[in-house]
Amino acid sequence: MKFEVKGRMKIKGSYRPFTRVVEAQTENFAKQKIFSLFGSEHGIKRRFIIIESIKSLQE
């Protein structure tokens, strides 16, 4: 199942919006995947990632 995750992440002292589509089984897994992806790609800690909405995309 695919989920569209919207939120903000702190980069260089300011929060910037993001929208990312991820493949996951549940909303909670999608949330954890976002934390993992941004941590590995940008070196951002979980506390600097604010998830505002998670929406299921129909396949």
Describe the structure in your own words.
By secondary structure, this protein is of the alpha+beta class. The chain has one domain (2-57): Ubiquitin-like (UB roll). 27% of the residues lie in helices and 49% in strands. It has one helix at 27-42; strands at residues 2-11, 14-23, 49-57. The chain has a three-stranded antiparallel sheet. Strand 1 and strand 2 form a beta hairpin. The protein is elongated, with a radius of gyration of 11 Å. The N and C termini lie close together (7 Å).
Task: List the keywords.
59 residues, alpha+beta, Ubiquitin-like (UB roll), three-stranded antiparallel sheet, 27% helix
**Proportion of beta-strand residues:** over 45%
CATH-derived architecture: Roll
Rg is: 11 Å
Q: Which sheet architecture does the biggest sheet show?
A: 3 strands, antiparallel
